[in-house]
Amino acid sequence: MAKTISIDMREFEFDAGETVLSVAKRNGIFIPTLCYHEALKPYGACRLCLVEVLEGDKPGLHASCLLSAKQGLVVLTVSDLVLKVRGVLIQLLLKRYPKEKSLMDIAKACGIEDSISTLTGEHQEKACLLCGRCVRACEEMGRSVIGFVSRGSERAVDAPIGSHKECLGCRACENVCPTGVVRFSLHDGVIKNDLWDITVDMAVCPICGRSFATVPLIDKVKTELEALSEAISMCPACRRAELLKRICV
Amino acid sequence: MEQDTISAKYNELKEKGLLSLYPKGIKITVGMSTCGIVAGADKTYETFGQGLSDLNLEARLTKTGCLGLCEEEPLVYILVEGKGRYIYGRIGPGDVYALLSGLKNKKIPKQNLLCKVREDKPLLGGAVNIEELKQGIELFEPPGLQDIKALPFFARQMKIATRNSGLIDPISLEEYVAMGGYEALKKALLMDPEDIIETVMLSGLRGRGGAGFPTGAKWHLTRQSEGKEKYVICNADEGNPGAYMDRSILEGDPFSVLEGMTIGGYAMGAQKGIIYLREEYPLAASILNEAIKRAMDQGFLGEHILGGDFSFHIEVIKGHRAYVCGEETALIASIEGKMGEPRPRPPFPTEKGLHGRPTCINNVQTWAYVPPIIALGHEWFRSIGTEYSKGTKVFSVVGDVQKSGVVEIPMGTPIGDIVNGICGGPGPWGLKAVEMGGPGGGFLPVSLVNMPVSYEGLLEVGAALGAGLVVLGQNRCMVDMALHFMEFAVKESCGKCLPCREGTLEILRILRDIAEGRGVLADLRVLEDLSTALKYASLCGLGQTAPNPIMSALKYFKEEFLAHISHKFCPAGVCKGLFRVKIDRYNCNNCGECMIVCSNQAISKTNNGYDIDVIKCNGCGNCIYICPIKAIKPIRNED
Amino acid sequence: MGISEEIRNKFKGLTSEERSRPATLLKRVQAEYGYVPEDALEVIAGLTGLPLSQIKGVATFYASFSLRPRGTHVIQICQGTACHVKGAKRLKERLESLLNTETGQTTEDGIITLEEVRCIGCCNRAPVVVVDGRTKGRINIRELEPLIRDLRD
Ligand SMILES: Cc1cc2nc3c(=O)[nH]c(=O)nc-3n(C[C@H](O)[C@H](O)[C@H](O)COP(=O)(O)O)c2cc1C
Ligand code: FES
Ligand code: FES
After folding, report:
1. What pTM was estimated for this model as a whole?
2. CA atoms of B83 and B133, how far apart (whole Å)
């Protein structure tokens, strides 16, 4: 018999190693998230994804992005306590970043409308919500060019100047940013990130003259390829897989 | 090593230890823990050295740790062969020569003499009757001397974790062994590791770091976890502000912690121990390092302990000033060279801890209880305390209390007994509350102050066991205290999780509003909502417990909050601007202190006493605070 | 000799274990210079093989390290609970006004840095200040002015 958990009084099957958040998402149950991203290891810092465990190892509120599904687990995504706590958390964020569009989307999705309606239209600014997705993307896929600095309310994401030269320009950070405050833009011959003042040279195609990737990325692929001379003997599909495996360490 | 060889080694050490503990003639010992030194003990010690040679008096001069009677520091102990040990309080350099010339004239000087010790009863060894010891020297002793056991400060204490502090030279391995030290390790190494864990489990010992997790169970989990390499860690981060009992133990009896960790290492199959020590304790660091070195020299640490198969090393690693690093996972991150950010659990450190290996973290006191439990058995330990809280508990007691210091009492002792009985009560202002548990604890109002010390009881009333006791007199403002703890939380939050980072800041903003007279009644509801969110949503214990002081203050002292909000009045005269001051001319003794501390020169001397210029007064309250006879009172601004 | 070279030299004599610990190296630098110069971060990243971002994170996270130069003298005022109860906030405010600076800052003449610590474990001597590493207990608000005068001389 397949193993199941109960979410909001409905039974769902789950795969080994799956989290409650993932089971919920797969079945169309809404749980707000901020620091979570499919491509990254779960972090458990924004706490928006809290659900209430009624039956399980430890009853109480738990971050669903970290909570492993286990046979017999019973959770509620909309208990009174969850709604109350979630509401406070979103209000706290809104208070700090009143004009952040992505936040308003989350608030709306959670049915928290007050103080939002007045803040529509063009005035939206992009803000860093300290979800840490970019930092983790850089750590997991890039070269840890960026990191958190300071503590408490002074916490921020920072790229020390000395580390700029390490940046691959892979743009994973941009890709995972929920608000769009992390952005690279193409200038002549370089991509630039204004937030951290990082510039990465673009490579130019010797044939058509088009900029198509950053120089460090191409260099990285080149070194990997060299180490992969045996890959010449592989079929294209396996070669690609092997190559990817090596690049993404 | 054969058991015979080991016994011979112990006997030799013991003999040496006894000889230096109870030498011939006179021995002068100065309490040289940090609190002693800050009170001037280092100068006292130096002066004794000088004085002995100046007066040509023969005596041994030694150092010891903290006896707990910190109020009377610098403490000096004069042991006279065959007479007893005399304890003197507040001996500054200026008192040294008088003391010495008294001795020179064959008299026990009476000045500053607190009490006499006739007999030492080491917990783990036989009793030593000092009066009957050896020959004795002919000295005149003032009649009617109080015995140490008769002093209220010591009468109700039961010393287990602090058994050697203030008695032995902290870095003398010989004296430690003479007091029955390392007997437990010898015994443990002959036991099956599982049996050691069983003993600890049956003893009922629970962690003294705050959460009160059963120590035996934690050891069991660590032992069971897969992995050849394991760690044991002593949490000596003692971050709770206003608490220093862990420091007192580390500085006064480092070997007890080392022995406890070594036994733990053997029982759990760990090869390495780490003492994570807060940087603010440099003296403890040097004492620990010296003790480690000596233990290694004598084969109690390092490779092949006592000649057997078990090898174990201990290293002291210093913290870098972050309260959150007392939390287990943050502590581990800090040792690993990262920012001290907690991570979600599971996995628990017992399974995946330092460098991903099974790790058992226990508090300083918890480790110090291990040797006596192994030596005397679990039943002895179980027999002390309450149903769910076994053994004793060490507290530092500070704040508005007559005799601040470090005390060790059986679990179940009423808190009021500690404050009033042992520590002499709160002094002239009278008691308002006792703060227990630090930034994650709460306040006990006078009505609850007689509740017994226990994990279960304190949890129920919103306080906790992990920190010391801070006694608050009637002249302290509870809004200000709540504000103080929230400022602490804001400054010490790591900032990783949203509720703690943003929530503490918002609570602080509201409390500031209330303390500065901008509060509205609705704030109290918001405070409650925020507190709920922090409690349930925060990633680690810091955020989860940060609202406790506020909730506790609101629960027991709501009227004070209401006075601040509705009447813009701080009844205690603490919150600036929320009161005026009035000098009670009738009681004023014209000392003039208030005029000196006034921050805006609003107080002047007139013919009929001191006068406050209402216009100039900025309501800082310095004068209320300084007045030695409570002749200056806060009154409402409009009165 | 460049500052990086100079810093590297300060690490000579450390064991390989100590060299692998960023905080140990940061502490050494802080002890030598009274603060952690920006260049030290890169040197330490190089030595430990850890990302510079992590070194900067550690250097900014812990209160032990200061990335800004500090004054010739450092006054640390304890704001722990015992000291708070004994009026440490008043002392802090008095110091701020006497030094005309905020806590965490250095006076304009660069002589005195005012910092706060949150309990140094001498709570029974509250309120305490630490002046250039020496702890003074039971400080009276009136002692602050002479204390500063002494430091300035
Ligand atoms: C924010 C925070 C700070 C803590 N600080 C300390 C501390 O300074 N000393 C300590 O022993 N435990 C501290 N703890 C508790 C530890 O996390 C842990 O529970 C304890 O060291 C376990 O040892 P025990 O079982 O012997 O109590 C702290 C916990 C939190 C959440
Ligand atoms: S999404 Fe789970 S904690 Fe952020
Ligand atoms: S509170 Fe200041 S030394 Fe402990």
Report:
1. 0.95
2. 8
